[in-house]
TrEMBL record:
This is Short-chain dehydrogenase. Keywords: Oxidoreductase. One of its GO terms (molecular function) is oxidoreductase activity. Gene3D superfamilies: NAD(P)-binding Rossmann-like Domain (3.40.50.720). The lineage of its organism: Bacteria, Pseudomonadati, Thermodesulfobacteriota, Desulfovibrionia, Desulfovibrionales. Residues 16-198 form the Ketoreductase domain.
Amino acid sequence: MTIRNNASSKHALHGKTLLLTGASMGIGRALAVALAGVGVNLVINARSEDRLRETREMCVGSGAVVEEIAGDASRSEIVDAMVAKAGDIGGLWGFIHAAGLLHPGPHVWELAEEEFQAVFQANVVAAYQLIRACMPLLLRQGEGLAVFFGSGAAVKTQPGIAAYCAAKAAEEHLARQLAAEAPQITSTVYRPGVVETRMQSQARESEGGAARQLQQVFKAFKEQGQLITPEESAAGLVRLLSSSPKRLHGGTWDVRDMG
């Protein structure tokens, strides 16, 4: 990936510091590179320390400061460490919660208890932890940014990903609650589109009682050429944030809303 940082035309968030979860692969990794490329300082997070370090190395040369905190973002001590690291960089401006988990294939009653909980921890509990840790700081400074990765799954019923659909509905509603409770902080939902990521391949190769129905949907995305790259999806969010991010407050946006 090529990092471009045009100092003569600075991005709206140039020099700001953001927390970014899910940064070890897929859209999260592409987003880390894209944001660093426009001068955003980052504290990146994911559970895989090795892949997270690779992401950080991909940001070298951007001119931005990129630090890493590996671990499960649904744990308070991990998110608290991210906030502390942002303070070391020079202050926190907000967060982007790109982490997520699918566990596709089984009917909802077939899904193991620990798998159901893991989906909600990655999508919803981690979102809460970011809110809990960041909002006191952001409210004291009177402005900031909170971006939650949503999904069209939040408003659909799709056999084989029941936990994910429910978790995304909960996460999107949590973002709307935050928008209502803290109107001075820009809180928004970004739906990244149908992206060729590990989740897509997991769904295409899923097993379980609802796997056949799920495979038909996800294989069709690929066969019909509907998939976009992680880089294209990340670019969509960066473009949305490029001009007057406050206009995004309380809304649900997707990769097509680049204007």
